[in-house]
């Protein structure tokens, strides 16, 4: 289950990116997340000041 709280979501997504997935597309496929769900996650993290850094493969 993907957390709803933005800070818990940040931690969860960054952990998955660090430990299991090489990029956001792989994460979405691995967690069976649709494009619109992924966009919602990215926006939710952006709303609390975090953006995806592809080079580092994490939200920072």
Topology:
Elements: H1 6-19, H2 24-30, H3 35-47, E1 52-53, E2 58-59
Antiparallel strand pairs: 1-2
Keywords for this entry:
60 residues; two-stranded antiparallel sheet; 3 helices
Describe the structure.
With 60 residues, this protein is mainly α. It has one domain. The protein has a two-stranded antiparallel sheet. It has 3 helices and 2 strands. This is DUF4250 domain-containing protein. InterPro entries: DUF4250 (IPR025346). It comes from Butyrivibrio proteoclasticus (strain ATCC 51982 / DSM 14932 / B316) (Clostridium proteoclasticum).
How many beta-strand elements? 2
Query: What's the helix-strand series?
Result: HHHEE
Shape: globular
Gap between N and C termini:
22 Å
Which ranges are low-confidence, i.e. pLDDT below 50, for 5 or more consecutive residues? Answer: none
The largest beta-sheet arranges its strands as 1-2
User: How many helix segments?
Assistant: 3
Approximately what portion of the residues adopt beta-strand conformation? 5-15%
Q: Which class of secondary structure composition applies to the elements?
A: mainly alpha
Mean pLDDT: 97
Structurally, the number of domains stands at 1
Sheet with most strands: 2 strands, antiparallel
Short description, anyone?
The protein has 60 residues and is mostly helical.
